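2024-03-11 09:14:02 DEBUG pipeline.ingest accepted 1 chain
2024-03-11 09:14:02 DEBUG pipeline.ingest length=324
2024-03-11 09:14:03 DEBUG pipeline.predict start
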Amino acid sequence: MKQVKGVLLTLIIAVAAICLSIYITIGAVTLGIVFGIIIGNVFKLNPSFSSGIKFSEKKILSFAIILMGINLNFGIIQELGSKSLIMIMLSIVFTIFTAILLSKILKLNSNLGLLLGIGNGICGSSAIAATEQIIGAKEDEVGISVAIVNFLGTIGIFLIPFISKIIFSFSDIHSAFLIGDTLQAVGQVVASGFSINSEVGHTATIIKMLRILMLTPVVLSLIVIFYRRKKDRETNSFQKKTFPFFIIGFILMSLIPSFHLLPENWIHIVGKASHFFLVIAMVGIGLKVNFSSIVKNGSKALFVGSLVFSFQIIFALILIKLFL
């Protein structure tokens, strides 16, 4: 019961973030982590809140990630074909490796650089949440990366249609690919795509869903890479307690829409629940972020994130010119 106060605090802040996200376009997840950062730094919270906040940022986050799998439907691969799949995979690999390379060149924290690459490359906050425990990222790193990736995506809602239609005069299919392949969150893709027309909006959303499907192989790859490194460093046997078992739940949940194991309305409800729990977890992370870390790493991380996003857009334009 000692966790009740902290969980209740994160719940209240999360509800406020969700309500305000109706009017503020950056989304509930970003608002949740921003509110958490502000409250955690402006007010000196009683230590009695600590265990509940930790429960939210660890246990509720794991539960949110498991439920998040309900949003993946592997049947969508058939709708787009192998060419689109290959293009999206190339784009994701390029974005992640660009982030890693730029973080090394500009001497940004490696975990923060990787999170920026994963968030930009796949699906924003959800991808960061699904991978932060695997790579051993700190709360500060998660908070900064979520805020930056969502900030850039919000700018992209207006920037990408301008690039697509005004600068390059793209066709609808080309515009849809550029939007679906570069913007981080589904909501951003929907807003940007439908600002052009309904056909672009629908196609861009399907492309984005295919991008989200790539979260599973990326997560599994990171597990292999990081736990192999950990074994090499510790020179002892792999310990079961270090394996993020919520990833198994995430993959199992993805089978539900892929094989139509539940009615559509139930899948929609579970998807909404996963988003709600994700906002709560992000509030918990935000409450533990220190302003000094933001001052120290925030400006450089924003610069690196902006470069990554810029190169990501350029690479998508190259793919469009070469293959579409």
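2024-03-11 09:14:41 DEBUG pipeline.report The radius of gyration is 19 Å.
2024-03-11 09:14:41 DEBUG pipeline.predict end
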